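Consortium newsletter contribution from the modelling node. Members have asked for a concrete example of what our holo predictions look like. Here is one, prepared for the alpha-D-glucopyranose complex that several groups have been discussing at recent meetings.
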Amino acid sequence: MQRGGGRQSLGRAPPAPLVCLGVGRRVSCPPAGRGSEGDAPPPSTQVPSEPSPERWSLLCTGKAHPCPAPSERHSLPFTPALTSRAQVQRALLALTIPLEALQAVKDRMLQAMRKGLSRQTHAQANVRMLPAYICSTPDGTEKGDILVVELCQSHVRTLRVTLLGDGNQSPQVTYKIFDMPGDITQGKGEALFDFIAQCLRQFLAGISSPQHRLPLGFVFPFSCRQTQLDKAELISWSKGFSCSDVEGKDVVQLLQSAIKKQELHHVDVVALMNDTVGTMMTCSMRGEPCEVALIVGTGTNSCFMAEAQLVEMAEEISGQMCVITEWGCFGDDGTLSDILTPYDQHVDQESFNPGEKRCTHPPERAGHGQGKEGSGGSGAPAERAGLLPGAADLPGGGEPRRRALRCWAGCHPQPHVPEPGPSPSSFSGRFGEILQSVTGLLAPECMATLLPSVDGTGQGAAVVTAVALRLAAQRHEVDQLLAPLQLSRADLERVQALMRREMELGLGLESHANASVRMLPTYVRGTPDGTERGEFLALDLGGTNFRVLVVRVAQDGIRMASEIYVIPTAVMQGTGELFNHIIECIMDFQLKQNLLEQVLPLGFTFSFPCQQLGLDKAVLLSWTKGFSASGCVGQDVVQLLREAAQRKQHLGLKVVAVVNDTVGTMMSCGYDDPKCEIGLIVGTGTNACYMEEMRNVGTVEGEQGRMCINMEWGAFGDNGCLDDFFTDFDRLVDEKTINAGKQRFEKLISGMYLGEIVRHILLALVEKQLLFRGKPCPKLQTRDIFQTKFLSTIEIDGLALQQVRAILQDLELQASFEDSLLVQKVCQTVSLRAAQLCAAGLAAVVEKMRENRGLAQLAVTVGVDGTLYKMHPRFSQHLQQMLRDLAPNCTVTFLQSEDGSGKGAALVAAVACRGAEP
Ligand code: BG6
Ligand code: GLC
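And here is the predicted structure:
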């Protein structure tokens, strides 16, 4: 059922209804100033006048009069008035374009369209091919009360559309049309938007408008750079509009602010669309999906559903996305110069934007629509030029014909048209016939059905808005689900304070046992001073790779050779094989390096929590990061290594130092930067060490100097102090690990766990029907299937969403555009939280160091390693940014370790050997 509305004139004074218009068959917005108040007149009365078929027929065949050659076309004199019939005929012939020329125009249009679609050439393209962020045509389930505001050439149309969700065959529509004061299109932007908002208020006052939230779709038929459905920057005005302070601004925001001023607080602008899009959507509601729309009215434009991967600017990856061609500018670079006549050039020169929008319907070029007054006088341009008595009187109507052909030549390259079937009525009479027939000639492989938009753009706009609304509701649900993972600054300050407290507890002799941060002494008392020398073996166990190295420290620098060895899971988690395996790897390495005969001192990076009793004595306190080899916890790992060497009859092993990877990293970076007094790992696990004052280390005797403390901060929170920050997802991840309840801080931050957190969130989103259309994803149920390295890829800046999709496809997940964006958002949320928590921990460390040293400002370097830190595109940036915020009195430099911590272990071994020398 449809109900009519009324036309109002809304100037500075309160508006009064003037005219009532029904929904009519038309090409674009109905012209102003017709109709009367009351119910809608029958559609036929709303059809804009078209030249009669008889009048068109003369030139339509193109045979009766041969077309002038391009050169002839250009040489036609532009005369203020044509007096003889022959002159008129000649002038008209100039406006005729032969089929071959149209074919060439079509090819150029195709080229221009490709240029607009490509990311590389988009900026220079005339045909801009603007993504509309609409990925599907309506499916009929759209439902609800929607407001629509349509900004037209000389009026504003307001509608309330009630979509019933029953296939959208019979939406209820109430509308009103408001004439715009003449000067408003050239005045201040603010006045224009205020006017629109006033219309809306008047409209709502006249209907029984519900007080609950009313979503609004805004039909804004100008060239906009859209970045989402409700974000659209006006690129440039056209059609005689030139309001100040609007170009370059988000018009959704401008309208929303104006609406607020009218105190319509329940009205929300949720979607903006071009009139082409509204038309396409309206036509889609009539059965067959309509995938191309054409506007030939005051201006001309088209849109179509493009294959998503072609729309590089939108990063759409699957399915389709609606693209607005903005083909009105086709030819602005001279592409059409061979078909332009002096009349066209004259019209162009007279227009308010000479040289621009050369493909556009002349009235727009002249700066006003439908023959209304504008900058260049009144009437059609040909009339104004004195060329013709009136376009409608022309035999054959040269101008409209040419326009039709050109539009269709451009429209054709989008081959999708509905299936051949019962042909609906033609596109506004003769104009449509020509479109249809020339399309057939230029694109014989395509079958286009022309469907006049009898309902304007309003209903389509309502559908788009309803879809946007559904998406917004989903976004809200997503936000709620992700909210617990988003930490405020106050949260992070609290984490920092808790870390500081745990550090103090860990250092204190009495409190040590109850601290979750163990603060283990390392017996490393200084960073390298450059005098270290010698040749060493080194082991690096506990990160992604197990490495055996030979390190030569000489005056001219450090040289290293290394091999990576695999530690099979069975060995990692088995019974007693781990150290045998390590010795076998050492022997293999020595053999390869021809070092079997030499007894080299060995530095052992062992990246697990150890109670160190000396530089070469380290009792394993617990396994972390998926290791669980039996018979090791509670044992001195150096001793375990020596015993294994004996078992394997490898007698040339001399272990002189065992260090944690944080310490190895700090020493390694400290060799290059003496300010490096902190070691940080953000990889499979996470941990930090730093130089603490001996006087503060209650667990080791002695007050002088400093000692490196291995914080083992991965266990921070194991005593419950971080419980407020754990989400359900974190708990699910923790429960399934082999060390449930342990390493809780590490499980929020490090590479071994982030992918799992993301996986659990994705599962929850699927369950809530917010992702993958709620379809069950069996593969996503598999533990560890979503690896942290996917986060590093998915979050790469400017990554084509296609790649996100490829990753998801490997997991047998068929992701839509929205799905991919959502997965990206989840990854970003999880990695951001990790970086921020890491920053809070580090802030506690640097602040303590600053206070220890009684400094107003501390300058310190952090040596850092770990796959997550190194590979993730944003982690380091977020970490450093947050750290600056939380510890403003510390200037912290990050030095990435390029050589691994084995080098640092060798340096520690070098110091140990030097100390042992007589
Ligand atoms: C390496 C170090 O570069 O980084 C190791 O040499 C350290 O000692 C590791 O354990 C940490 O990162 P990941 O990502 O391998 O756990
Ligand atoms: C784990 C280990 C710790 C190591 C860190 C980084 O947290 O317990 O010793 O430093 O991972 O590899």
